[in-house]
Design a protein that fits this description.
alpha/beta, eight-stranded mixed beta sheet, seven-stranded mixed beta sheet, 17 strands
Length: 532
């Protein structure tokens, strides 16, 4: 059968014209929505040295991959003049795309729309994209730049925050959650970032605080600037709220992309494995000379870490907070590992309140996302003093202990020099379910250092000796030979092997390969009660 060739009628032309006009209207509407609060507010955002929400997302994601959703959502409030301030998309941009080819979801608060304040519908957009991330098992990134709750919406805005916090908590340990602070985050708004895994702050434009400088001054009399109260430097070094800082937004986005390269998309996956470009059995004789023989002489543990991991590539986390302990991500034989290390050139590597918290949180993150742990131990003990005791060093130190016991990922530890007392136990000892524990030949493992031990057990003998100094030196040498060496621990099986420092990388690679299929479990329970 032959069919007649269709010819355009007047009605067909009219329909086509109608379709075009509708498409033109759609494009015009989308273009207007892309401007957020309008050209003037976009220009004001740029004058503050800040990118717009959509510019940020375009730069964070792979080029052209970000897809925005809920573009035409508007708030439905009419109180206090809001009926005259309605913008499509409202105060947040949400969507999905790829970063290095992997699926990622994100939202970015739009400061050009009512100062980025959180409305009921903005909260709904954020929770929608968080739900998508959870259902598909992909990371979620939030870019914060907001004046806080939308006061005109009252309790609806507060309820919106509650819905976000709930999802942050339920997603914890399931998908990686990353926050970028690229503007103000005040009041209740700070608790969503605090519930995420990592916080980045952009220097100069990112601030976080519960109450702003004006309220602080009215209540306490303190005169403090926004930056002094909640800037990037403060939170990265003093409070420990921020894990990373960046000089610019573009630098921040690059850093986030690098972090994601170490992380699995969710807790059911293993971290990305790359083809190793560093020889697995590479020995490094320089490691024999990095750690001084004298127990009190400092050195930089980074010189140990970078000589062992693949291509000396190490991503430190919380670098400026509690510097007496180092934590971060690296690769060994192409596989991602989490590293925890005492830093001997900061407070002699002693554990204090902040170091315990920092270490515990990192260990729990690695365990949640199937990242094996390598611990480098050189610890003289816990920090003494009333400030630490009154601050709860017992409780905080127990967090680190708890985290190591709870972790079921492969765990390896290397004692570099000294491991004394309770701090020895806490730092991934065999008793805390560590899998492979190694020691360097010059390491000392004991209840306390030889000098301290002799002061306790040899007080009377030293006092009765004709030459007390000589007697003390004799007893210290005897204690060190009999107790403060790795062979006593190795003899009892608390240390699996004493190794040549130069062979540390090959030994760890072999252990990691051996533990690749490790399965461990915890007793059935709803959850433990970590000493928070």
């Amino acid at each position: 059968m032959r069919y007649p060739i269709a010819t355009e009628s007047k009605s067909d032309a009219s329909d086509e014209s109608g379709h075009l006009s509708k498409l033109d209207a759609l494009e015009a509407r989308r273009t207007a929505a892309q401007l957020g609060g309008g050209e003037a507010r976009v220009e004001a955002q740029h004058k503050r040295g800040k990118l717009t929400a959509r510019e940020r997302l375009a730069r964070l994601f792979d080029e052209g991959s970000f897809t925005e959703t809920d573009t035409f959502v508007t708030h439905r409030s009419t109180d206090l003049g809001l009926d005259k301030q309605r913008f499509e998309g409202d105060s947040v941009v949400i969507g999905y795309g790829t970063i290095d080819g992997r699926s990622v979801f994100a939202y970015a608060q739009d400061f050009t729309v009512l100062g980025g304040s959180l409305s009921q519908v903005a909260a709904g957009k954020i929770t929608k994209v968080m739900d998508h991330a959870m259902r598909t098992g992909a990371p979620i990134i939030g870019i914060n730049d907001s004046g806080g709750a939308r006061i005109q919406e009252g309790i609806d805005s507060l309820a919106g925050y509650g819905e976000i916090f709930k999802r942050n908590t339920l997603a914890s340990g399931v998908i990686p959650q990353i926050t970028i602070i690229a503007g103000p985050a005040a009041g209740g708004a700070v608790y969503s970032p605090a519930l995420t895994d990592f916080i980045y702050m952009v220097e100069g434009i990112g601030q976080m605080y519960i109450t702003g400088p004006d309220v602080v001054k009215s209540v306490t009399g303190e005169d403090v600037s926004h930056e002094e109260l909640g800037g990037a430097a403060v939170h990265a070094s003093q409070s420990g709220v921020a894990h990373f800082t960046a000089e610019s937004e573009d630098a921040c986005f690059a850093d986030v992309r690098r972090l994601l390269s170490f992380l699995p998309s969710n807790n059911a996956e293993s971290p990305p494995v790359v083809d190793p470009t560093d020889t697995p059995d590479r020995a490094d004789p320089a490691l024999r000379d990095v750690v001084p023989d004298a127990a009190s002489q400092p050195y930089d543990v980074m010189d140990v870490i970078t000589k062992i991991v693949d291509n000396a590539d190490f991503l430190p986390v919380h670098h400026n907070f509690a510097p007496n302990i180092v934590v971060g991500l690296a690769r060994l034989d192409g596989r991602v590992i989490g590293i925890v290390a005492n830093q001997a050139n900061q407070m002699a590597g002693m554990l204090d309140i902040d170091a315990s918290d920092k270490g515990a949180r990192f260990v729990r993150f690695c365990d949640a996302f199937n990242i094996p742990l390598v611990t480098f131990v050189d610890v003289p003990g816990f920090m003494p003093g009333t400030q630490q005791e009154y601050g709860g060093i017992i409780r905080h130190g127990a967090k680190l202990l708890y985290a190591y016991v709870e972790a079921s990922v492969p765990k390896m530890a290397v004692i570099l020099r000294k491991a004394y007392g309770g701090a020895y136990i806490v730092m991934s000892s065999k008793e805390l379910r560590s899998d492979v524990n190694l020691a360097w030949p010059g390491s000392e493992i004991a209840v306390m250092g030889p000098e301290g031990a002799v002061n306790v057990i040899g007080r009377r003998a030293i006092a009765d000796a004709e030459d007390s100094d000589a007697k003390r030196a004799e007893m210290v040498d005897d204690y060190r030979e009999r107790f403060a060496n790795p062979y006593v621990a190795a003899n009892r099986g608390y240390i699996d092997d004493v190794i040549d420092p130069a062979q540390t990388r090959p030994e760890l690679v072999k252990a990691l390969r051996m533990l690749e299929n490790k399965v461990d479990s915890l007793p059935p329970k709803k959850h433990g009660n970590i000493p928070l």
